[in-house]
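ZP: hey, is the zinc ion complex queued? I don't see it on the tracker
AM: it wasn't, my bad. submitting now with these inputs:
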Amino acid sequence: MNIDDIFSQRKRRWNKLISVRKSTESQERECPRCKHSTPVRMLAANHWICGECNYYFSMTPKDRLELVCDDDSFKELYAKLKSSDPLHFPEYEKKLESCRRKTGQQDAVVTGICKIADKRAAIAVLDSRFLMGSMGTVVGEKIVRLTEYAGKKKLPLIIFSASGGARMQEGLFSLMQMAKTGAAIEKYKEAGGLFISCLTNPTTGGVSASFASLGDIILAEPDALICFAGPRVIEQTIGQKLPEGFQRAEFLLEHGMVDRIVERGELRDVLARILAMHTK
Ligand SMILES: [Zn+2]
């Protein structure tokens, strides 16, 4: 390769780098509710909330952990657990691979330990980008391992849910995780553990019907959909229109299923206060 080739290769690489940087700087996301487009960096600075209509975009585990944990305090556990394809479900392996590439994670939950305002806690965040945050064997197993770890180390447990429910590609193996996670959480609570469940949009199906509803304290984000079967399914089944705001966080708060609705801006403070009250 002669010197001109090397220079032109470098120039190409340099131009590519600049164009990638420009494209992420100018990238915009459209709000699904008000259709207003906002630059990604502004959304990120505003905790992924639409400045026009207050719509809550879903957050990645990384953004969520950055929002609530003390700087550099998060240590990931069980990151390498990986789903197999027990039913040889068509296309499942392929979908898993593409989700792994997209998220950089092996499955739909990130688990670990952290500090919040200097109080230690075990924390899990489900990721709705990974097969809709569905609970298969790995999500169930990671929640159980983290809960048992929290029990052994006498740590409070915080779980952020965002899930479409059980993972259909793992059939019965998925459904078993409901009982498994529920039993582990109950055992943890009986031994005096504090479980704070944070429901984000959407928390549905087998996740809402297992560990997510078992919090000693249940927090929810504004307007989050929280339900077992979604409104469309219920309407089709009973042939009736549902009341306004049905299955939204505010509706559940009014009906005693949620303890408090917490805006993202105050989330870290609220968690810190709960931890300070309940831990020595
Ligand atoms: Zn909006």
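AM: back. Residues 31, 33-34, 36, 50, 52-53, 55 surround zinc ion (CB under 6 Å).
ZP: great, adding it to the tracker
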